[in-house]
């Protein structure tokens, strides 16, 4: 995943300033607390409150640690893992995975949209969390503002998936509440997106079902199940824990371009499709 230079955004809400330090929620002054007193992003009284600023973990490989630029998770927590592992690829996709691993050992990024300054897309933005997400709830939708890509919109107004859906980086998500848990169904994900920080591939038939449950005031459990009849011989799952961040120094980054500091592109040959200008 490419790393962008921190800028000084001027957007509303959480899309404001870059992360300055990795401070915890304790001992935060009123000036530094996020969201400010009297401000709420829970604008849907018919739904449980999962609004706020949340940081998840990063996908890891057993024996290799977190699959991130730094080799660790952003706040020191353990990485999370796919099950089963190794991923149960079909022969064609196992070959694709092996080719990506071999290229990475030679310093060439294959299957990494971020290395070409394209949106990271789903499900990577759920499995690798270098920065917190801002969840905003309004009637009929839950919106996750994520660093470096388009927001993930989960429609909760009862609409179905479009009949003739054009694939996109984040796909199309619909959801509904059962008690304190948001059940989400995502389809139409562009086959170019990676599953995770290891750039594991998937096909255009990827079907993602996931749940978001607030199990404590400052803890969300996010459980993912991947179905892909072309790429996998069986479903793949992951459970990750998101923790609330209340210090404004954790705010979501915005107004930054990967072209300004693309750490994973050293030359024009490092990633197919990268445009030097």
Verbal overview:
The structure is a single chain. The chain is mainly β and 277 residues long. The chain contains 2 helices and 11 strands, in the order βββααββββββββ. The protein has helices at 91-105, 124-127; strands at 52-55, 60-61, 65-66, 133-138, 141-145, 152-155, 172-178, 181-187, 207-216, 219-227, 236-244. The strands form 2 sheets. Strands 1-4-5-6-7-8-9-10-11 form a 9-stranded mixed beta barrel. The chain has a two-stranded antiparallel sheet with strand order 2-3. A hairpin with a 2-residue loop joins strand 7 (172-178) and strand 8. Residues 1-25 and 267-277 have low confidence and may be disordered.
Features:
11 strands; nine-stranded mixed beta barrel; two-stranded antiparallel sheet; 277 residues; globular; 2 helices; disordered C terminus; mainly beta
Give a brief outline of the structure.
The protein has 277 residues and is mainly beta.
The fraction of residues assigned to DSSP E strands is 15-25%
Residue-averaged pLDDT: 81
Number of strands: 11
Main beta-sheet strand count, sense and barrel state: 9 strands, mixed, barrel
Rg estimate, integer Å: 18 Å
Helix content: under 10%
Unreliable stretches covering 5 or more consecutive residues: 1-25, 267-277
SSE topology string: EEEHHEEEEEEEE
User: N- to C-terminal separation?
Assistant: 20 Å
Helix count?
Answer: 2
What would you call the structural class? mainly beta
Shape label: globular
Strand order of the largest sheet: 1-4-5-6-7-8-9-10-11
Describe the secondary structure blueprint for this structure.
Blueprint: E1 52-55, E2 60-61, E3 65-66, H1 91-105, H2 124-127, E4 133-138, E5 141-145, E6 152-155, E7 172-178, E8 181-187, E9 207-216, E10 219-227, E11 236-244
Parallel strand pairs: 6-7
Antiparallel strand pairs: 1-4, 1-11, 2-3, 4-5, 5-6, 7-8, 8-9, 9-10, 10-11
């Amino acid at each position: 995943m490419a790393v962008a230079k921190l800028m000084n955004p001027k957007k509303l809400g959480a899309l404001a300033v870059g992360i300055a330090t990795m401070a915890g929620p304790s001992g935060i002054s009123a000036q530094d607390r996020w969201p400010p007193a009297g401000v709420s992003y829970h604008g849907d009284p018919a739904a449980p409150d999962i609004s706020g600023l949340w940081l998840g973990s990063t996908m890891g490989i057993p024996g290799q640690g977190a699959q991130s630029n730094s080799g660790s998770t952003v706040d020191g927590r353990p990485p999370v893992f796919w099950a089963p592992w190794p991923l149960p690829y079909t022969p064609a996709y196992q070959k694709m995975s092996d080719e990506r691993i071999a290229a990475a050992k030679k310093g060439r990024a294959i299957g990494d949209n971020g290395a070409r300054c394209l949106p990271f897309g789903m499900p990577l933005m759920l499995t690798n969390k270098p920065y917190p997400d801002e969840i905003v709830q309004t009637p009929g939708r839950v919106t996750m503002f994520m660093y470096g890509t388009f927001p993930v919109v989960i429609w909760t107004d009862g609409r179905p998936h479009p009949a003739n859906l054009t694939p996109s980086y984040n796909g199309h998500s619909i959801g509904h509440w059962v008690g304190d848990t948001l059940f989400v169904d995502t389809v139409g994900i562009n086959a170019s997106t990676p599953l995770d920080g290891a750039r594991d591939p998937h096909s255009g038939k990827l079907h993602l079902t996931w749940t978001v449950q607030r199990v404590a005031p400052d803890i969300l459990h996010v459980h993912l199940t991947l179905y892909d009849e072309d790429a996998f011989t069986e479903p793949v799952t992951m459970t990750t824990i998101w923790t609330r961040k209340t210090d404004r120094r954790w705010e979501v980054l915005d107004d930054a371009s990967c072209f300004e500091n693309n750490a994973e592109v050293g030359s024009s040959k490092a990633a197919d499709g990268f445009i030097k200008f």
